Amino acid sequence: SFGKANLSIETAVTAIANQVAATPVTRLLVLYDVRYHAHMSNLEERIRSETGIDVVMGKIPKVVRRPQQGGSNVTPTDGGGGCGEEHCCSSTTTGGCNSKHNNEQSTRDASAVETEATPEITSSSNDPSSNDDDKEDSMPTSTTGGLELPIDFNEKGPFTFLYIGEETSLQYMNVVLRFLSAKVPPENYWIWRQTQEQLSTELSPRFQKKLNRRFYMVQKSKLASVYGVLVANLSERHTQSAVLEIQRMIKNHDRSSYIFAVGKINPAKLSNFGEIDCFVLVACPEHSLLENDRDFPTPIITPAELSMALGVTEWGQVEYSLSIDNYLCHSGSPMAARGDDDDSEDDAPYFNPVSGQYESAIVKDDTIDLAALPGKGTLTTYNSAAADFLKQREYQGLQVEAGQTEVRVAVEGQKGIASNYSER
Q1: Of 56, 85, 163, 266, whose CB count within 10 A is highest?
Q2: Structure pTM?
Q3: Which of 103-107, 129-133, 319-323 tops mean pLDDT?
């Protein structure tokens, strides 16, 4: 059943405790594949008791609505991919995204929440545990890899990241990319592979190749002139706002874009659009990274990687995220607006690691030099051999000769088959 996959807790705790003893680790951040969710509480307690270090365990987001005095219900914590920025889209009781997409949604969200039938939640003042639960629920959180974490978990000192699962998981790729781009990254990257019952304390060469693949596609997309925006999930919140923001960004950088509403993405379907140099996939975080991306002839990147390719953001400036909400929060960065001053260096060449050479930046030039054209800017007489041949033909198609022919009354003509018309 869901969340109850086999996990060798004894073996895992022993390996983790031995590694903690050999490595100066004071805090451990644990994220996991949801298949092992049922074992995480036990694993957290065992690690604490065996090592004595602080353990921060990711949790599956919960939607808790509590009635207010005014009678309306609000959602204090939804874990919906908050970026963790102050006064942005972090999951807090008062936090909300300051970007324009949240303003459009706030009115609809308020009316929808008021009409929803939600169970009433009550707590007893005599139960101290209930007060602790309320305090924990009200703490601001951020979402990483689909799991909730305290928003300030990386502000309490150095920490080591531990993942329970396989390195082939797209969730693991998402989490590592986010931590690598964080201002305070983990000191160590550990992973417990249940299939091998082995604890790895560094990123494997195979996984590093996958990271290089993401970097390669970002560099490749810098040379693109035509982008295709793939909308794979129309039900995702703020999808329309994200697509419009992507189009605006591409247009501001003098590129072209087309929108494709697709279902399941496959190489055969995208191969029909050879004019597209790069695709931007707008989907939920669980499906924004493709397992078989090497099978596609055209690079497929995420909206966050598009921002890096166009120079709107830089690696490490904001945390890597697959969430549409986070992308919209950071899309209003001051770097997003291109300067119109004469000192702009948009046309400066840059080094492309893909080709190993300096490339010229793609800058749209609206001026036309007529002297550089084949005709040198002079008017010439155009002669068409096809038009000359048409003039020599006796029948040149139906001709409109209005006013040049006599008007006659319609009469009944011959009838029959073409080989033998009967006379009347």
Answers
A1: 163
A2: 0.64
A3: 319-323
